[in-house]
Amino acid sequence: MKLSVAFILISFLSGSATFAQTAMVDSAQKVNNVTVLKDPRLDELARKMSEYNELMNLRKARTGKGYRLMVLTTSDRAQAMSVRTSLIQQFPDHKVYMIFQSPFIKLKFGNFVEKKDAEDVRKQLIKSGIITGNIYILPETIEVKPEAALSEEE
Question: Which residues pair with 108 in a beta bridge?
């Protein structure tokens, strides 16, 4: 008796298990058409984001080979700050780089693509009297202005 009840129960469950595995027909399969509703503001946002990214890439400082002037090497921080301030006031178009390499503070000046430009500014610095020692022209990796980089690429 127990064996026959178990057999009937197994038959019933296996039949329902096979029925559970039949595929249900999806509503999208019946129609074969999918409609996507998109907010039109997404297109506007994507366009604005693209314009913003292009503008930021154009403004980004680029690097290249060029020259800088080594204007001062000292261990006196006050003197280095004084010379740095004078350079910034007299030459606001050029950047001053203050580098500490123990025990010295080095001041480098400018981003020059051409050696001739560096030499011209070197002569101006000597005439101005801000720097009393020697000024050396160093080949270095410099920051190229985005406008200059764009004109070189075209």
Answer: 70, 97
For residues 124 and 126, give the distance between their C-alpha atoms in angstroms, rounded to a whole number: 5
The CA distance from 119 to 112, in Å, is 9
Give the domain ranges of the chain: 62-153
Q: How far is residue 122's CA from residue 107's CA, in Å, rounded to a whole number?
A: 14
> CA nearest 69: which of 126, 113, 144, 121?
121
142 three-state secondary structure: strand
| Residue-averaged pLDDT of the chain | 83
Phi-psi group of 19: left, alpha or beta (phi > 0 → left; psi -120 to 50 → alpha; rest → beta)? alpha
pLDDT-wise least confident of 10-19, 69-78, 81-90, 145-154: 145-154
- Residue range 62-153 forms a domain whose CATH class is alpha beta
Q: What is the pLDDT of residues 26-42, one digit of tens each?
A: 555 566 778 888 888 99
Tally Cβ neighbours within 10 Å of residue 124.
Answer: 12
SS3 breakdown of the chain: % helix, strand, coil, rounded to 5? 50, 25, 25
